[in-house]
From TrEMBL:
It comes from the Bacteria. It comes from Acidiluteibacter ferrifornacis. PANTHER family: SUCCINATE--HYDROXYMETHYLGLUTARATE COA-TRANSFERASE. GO terms for molecular function: CoA-transferase activity. Pfam families: CoA_transf_3 (PF02515). Keywords: Transferase. The keyword Transferase applies. This is CoA transferase.
Length: 357
């Protein structure tokens, strides 16, 4: 069950993050993935997206390594007739093609769906674009975060909107495309025919807005940046610090959890206050409530109160950096190691679900 796609062949004509993330997903689950990179630009552009302390002599960057696991990579020139024929030969026996061509490039190179469908009727043609198939607007994650409204609600204040620190829109689009491919594979098992699937980064971004979008659509509520706080729940996202300097985030989702919190920190006065009796009242008075909780946590030992709150089923999390995270045994089990072009690389697995018979 760890290699459910070992019979599948995937050709990846995609670069940067979203498309390669889809290819990596299938590679992790056993598929044979051939990644075709642009020879004229020295391969996938992310090969050169290095941190300041990464060696320029490394064949690949850490960024490239993150979403290019378990693949065979070839650098070809799609303007060269021999190279394009090689690509077509590979596609003729492939199950899935992943691409993120600029508008019109698929037609220019003869790699559009209609052409390839004639070559391989069972091919599942999966593509990612920026703002829709009719748009040639250049799309990078931060642009999408700005234009989808995400940046307007992220950060601490309206003067300094902040992007999410990971290219989440690329990852959202990758998940959408994976879902489409999996549905197409099921349908192909019934009909024997391939299919064309496409997703835009813009649509994926809007689809991810969830309750924030609904808050606007139903109540005309335009969210403002409120840091880690939740617009509908309190105390949720509030950060408190123990007397030994450990920072924790609270995620109180119901009255019972609030009661358990107040009991464990010995603040019955908060529980008895009419200002905090319901979630909506706590949202209305969240600043005053946060101040009271902060004062109390400053008097408490971190490890002790964290243990007691966990046992009392109070949602609380310790703020960790990545060094803290990957010192944990559970996190270490998700690390995948691989040598790419003679270089040792590591990344976190993307297919982390469990399937058992």
């Amino acid at each position: 069950m760890n290699q459910p796609f070992k019979e599948l062949k995937v050709v990846e004509l995609a670069s940067v993050l979203a498309g390669p993330a889809v290819g990596t997903f299938f590679a992790e689950l056993g598929a044979s993935v051939l990644k075709i990179e642009n020879k004229s630009t020295y391969g996938d552009v992310t090969r050169s997206w290095r941190l300041t302390d990464e060696s320029i002599h490394n064949p690949v960057s850490a960024y490239y390594s993150a979403v290019n696991y378990g693949k065979k990579a070839l650098q070809l020139d799609l303007k060269d007739s021999k190279d394009i024929q090689l690509v077509l030969n590979e596609i003729s026996t492939a199950d899935i093609l992943i691409s993120n061509f600029k508008k019109g490039d698929d037609l220019k190179y003869g790699l559009d769906y209609k052409t390839l469908q004639q070559l391989n009727p069972k091919l599942i043609y999966a593509s990612i674009n920026g703002f829709g198939t009719d748009s040639d607007k250049v799309a990078f994650d931060v642009v999408l975060q700005a234009e989808s409204g995400l940046m307007s609600m992220n950060g601490e204040n309206v003067e300094t909107p902040v992007k999410l620190p990971i290219a989440f829109i690329d990852l959202f689009a990758a998940h959408q495309l994976k879902e489409g491919i999996l549905i197409a594979l099921i349908q192909r098992g019934i009909s024997g025919k391939g299919a064309q699937i496409s997703v835009s980064l813009y649509d994926a971004a809007l689809a991810s807005l969830a309750n924030q979008a609904t808050n606007y659509l139903m109540n005309n509520h335009i969210p403002k940046p409120i840091g880690s706080l939740h617009p509908n729940i309190a105390p949720y996202g509030e950060i408190v610090t123990s007397n030994d300097g450990i920072k924790y985030v609270l995620a109180i989702g119901n009255n019972q959890q609030f009661q358990n919190l107040c009991k464990e920190i010995k603040r019955s006065d908060l529980l008895e206050s009419p200002k905090y009796r319901t979630n909506q009242l706590r949202v209305n008075h969240r600043i005053e409530l946060h101040m009271a909780l902060s004062e109390t946590f400053h008097l408490l030992n971190g490890a002790d109160i964290y243990k007691r709150l966990i046992e009392a089923k109070v949602p609380i999390g310790e703020l960790k950096n990545l060094k803290d995270v990957f010192e944990d045994e559970q996190a270490q089990r998700l690390i995948l190691e691989e040598e790419i072009e003679g270089m040792s690389t590591k990344r976190v697995a993307t297919a982390v679900f469990k399937i058992s018979e």
